Amino acid sequence: MTQNKPPINWPTTLWLVGSLAAALIAAPLYIRSFGFSLFELLVFLVMTYATGLSITVGYHRLFAHRSFDAVSPVATIAGLLGAATFQNSVLDWASEHRYHHKYVDRDGFPYDPYNINKGFFYAHMGWLIRKREPKLPRNNVADLEQSRFLLWQDRWILPLMIGMCFGFPVLLALGWGWLVGVEPLRAAMTGLVFGGIVRVVAVQHATFFINSLCHYLGRRPYDGRCTARDSGLVAFFTFGEGYHNFHHTFQADYRNGIRAWHFDPGKWVIWLLARLGLAWNLRRVAEETIRMARLREKRRDLEHSLSIRLDEMRHKAVEVMASLEKSLDEMHHRSRALWSEYRRVQQQRGAERRRRLREIRRELRCLRREFRQQFRAWEAAWRSVRFQLAAV
Ligand SMILES: [Zn+2]
Ligand SMILES: [Zn+2]
After folding, report:
1. Which residue from 134, 167, 187, 207 has the least number of CB within 10 angstroms?
2. pTM of the model as a whole
3. What digits encode the pLDDT tens for the residues 289-346?
4. pLDDT digit string (tens) for 101-150?
């Protein structure tokens, strides 16, 4: 029976492919016409961090996980700048993300929308390309639906995404350019190309990496049963979300990288907001709880390796026993043949009789010695398996 593939989500697919193609065409054309200076680089970096951190700090840690509380202007700025990344409304994003945490690595229904077990590309962006049926209902964000701003952002998300993704960086670059003496046409084009098109593609793939690379690359110190992984390298490209094994184990914590040196700009921004009195109730998992999780994971890992090692040892012992049993069996047959020959020779008469009987007895003595030795080896192997079984 052939299974029909789900239909392609054309608007999203055209956007993903179109924006990438536009970035690849627009950037070289711009550089050929205007060159590339510190101004272009700074517009790109400021827009990348402003919008990327709005997803990390706002969409992810403030809204989806409620890992801290903030004054409404912080929520509003995050909601507006987050829209500039074309990742839909906060309500849609948070709903999918909550399903991802609750049903991580799971297929069936309800499912993990970006399940890494369906492949790297699927987790990265494949899940956006094909419509999946049945759709996950948006029934897990009732707390966020209390906010009038989030309902408004959800209602007007398409014009907001277009305006914030392209209009806002053009205005920003025009104002900035006016201050530093960059001509308006060049400033506007910088905003559109590096603040808009190139930046949105970069931020989108950085966010996609959280669903793909963060479930693919790195260590699992807190919970080896989940595919999420910790990687300082990936954290560098994902605004600090690379400590993903920690995050999946303790999703309520406002931090992803818990050590001071862990690259986590999301954590630093939230901490700074708190210092400025703009955020409060920063949720942190107790140090002891984190250490206990590490300890339990180490124990689970050790038990797993031990059970594999024990299986190997038992397997080897059973193999040795089987080969010993085979040779014991052959010796047994040989001994029975010698005994029947002995009895036959005993019936005979003649000069050869005594010499032949003596030969058979000698052969039987050798055989018995060897048989005892091998029998003891078989018993030793048997005892070692029994001992290992008793130890488990
Ligand atoms: Zn994840
Ligand atoms: Zn999360």
Report:
1. 134
2. 0.81
3. 999 999 999 999 998 888 888 888 878 888 888 899 999 999 999 999 999 999 898 8
4. 999 999 989 999 999 999 999 999 999 999 888 899 999 999 999 999 99
| Number of helical H runs and strand E runs in the chain | 16, 2
Q: Looking at residue 33, what DSSP letter applies?
A: H
- Å from CA of 214 to ligand 1 middle: 7
Cβ–Cβ < 8 Å for 57, 78 = yes
Q: How far is the CA of 189 from the centre of ligand 2 (A)?
A: 35
Check: CB of residue 263 under 8 Å from CB of residue 257: yes
CB count within 10 Å of CB 347 equals: 7
For residue 158, how far is its CA from the centre of ligand 2 (angstroms)? 24
Find the 385 Cα to ligand 1 centroid distance in Å. Answer: 42
Asked whether residue 239 carries a pLDDT value surpassing 90, the answer given is yes
Distance, CA 36 to ligand 2 centroid (Å)?
36
Nearest Cα to Cα of residue 195 among 88, 51, 80, 89: 51
Q: Where do the structural domains in the chain lie, given as residue ranges?
A: 10-285, 291-391
Q: Which amino acid appears at position 367 of this protein? A: L
